[in-house]
Amino acid sequence: MDAALQNQMTVAALICSIAALFFSLLAAFPGLKGVLAAVRDGVLWFALFLILGGLGFVGWQHIQELQGPAMTVGGKAGPASGLPYSSASTAPHSRAATSPAP
What we know:
By secondary structure, the protein is mainly alpha-helical.
């Protein structure tokens, strides 16, 4: 994860946590407890989603970096065969005509 994305995710989680704290303080008023508790819980679930999603993304990137390039049959490193849009390192062989057509 690059620094800008990590910074944005950190700020978003911090804002969600501050909002949850604010709603917790407002929930001290008896008439608004039910509504504000529901909003607070929603904000906390969203913050948890952001944090766990960020951790999962960082873990996925780490696993992708550890795998490295795929090995081909000849033992040389080549493009990963499971990736979409990967191009082959060699052009397909065309069949050469041995004799001209009659």
